[in-house]
Amino acid sequence: MAIFAEELKQLIQESFPNAQVTVQGDDGRHMSAEVIDESFRGQNRVQQQRAVYAALKGKMDGSNGELHALALTTKVPE
Amino acid sequence: MSDAKSTIQDTVTSNDVVLFMKGTKEMPQCGFSSRVAGVLNFMGVEFADVNVLADDGIRQGIKDFSDWPTIPQLYVKGEFVGGCDIVTEMTLSGELDTLFNDQGVAFNKEAADKIREANG
Q1: Could you check whether the bond before residue B28 is cis, i.e. omega within 30 degrees of 0?
Q2: Strand A20-24 relative to strand A30-36, pairing
Q3: Most buried residue, A27, A71, B2, B21, by most Cβ within 10 Å?
Q4: B20 DSSP 8-state letter
Q5: Which chain A residues contact residue B81 at CB under 8 A?
Q6: According to the model, what pLDDT value does residue A6 have?
Q7: Which residues, including other chains, have CB under 8 Å from residue B37's CB and lie 6 or more apart?
């Protein structure tokens, strides 16, 4: 079961309501997402990306995870 | 502590640089693992590779251990550095060089510069 760009964006946006979220890719298994959010300020990349993965609620877990690969970029607003 | 967890703890404590990956450094079995192993190989970094496909306990265990859902995962001196995206960004920005310098990990600076030139 694949996950699609709009669904992925919605999931991220639920946890980061004020973030600027850009999702690309449409095969549903290899996607890329860029998340720009104020809450990342002062966090290192690992902390930032952990927070985004947490928002995906296990969609990337295990061999049954719907998403095989998410190229993730996190940024603090300029 | 579960077996997997103590094995992982031992591995990251007894090796300066460890890459948890799909496949081995000689024969990676996923493009993302291949990319990180390739960077380390090219930079001449000595590292231990752990093939998570060879052990389901480690495959799940490393995700719990790092609180990180994807493979590959890079550890330097017992600290989790990141996955493929973070390592790629750090390579291109030079932060990886700084980390290796700070942690006393030998690497080929010219090779690192070549990667940046080729991807600049």
Answers
A1: no
A2: antiparallel
A3: B21
A4: E
A5: 46
A6: 87
A7: B19, B21, B25, B28, B49, B72
Q: How many CA atoms lie within 13 A of B19 on its CB side?
A: 25
B67/A49 Cβ within 8 A: no
Minimum Cα–Cα distance from B31: chain A residue: A69
All residues of chain A having their beta carbon less than 8 Å from the beta carbon of residue B67 are 50
Helix axes B84-93, A45-55, angle to 10 degrees: 150
Q: Provide the pLDDT for residue B27.
A: 96
CA dihedral B92, B44, B58, B95 (to 10 degrees): -30
Instruction: Give B3-118's CATH code, choosing from 3.40.50.2000, 3.40.30.10, 3.40.1080.20, 3.40.50.620.
Output: 3.40.30.10
pLDDT along chain B (120 residues), means of 10: 89 98 96 96 98 96 94 97 95 97 97 93
CATH code: domain of residue A51? 3.30.300.90
**B70 lies within 8 A of chain A by CB:** yes
Q: Rounded to 5 degrees, what are φ and ψ at A18?
A: -100, 5
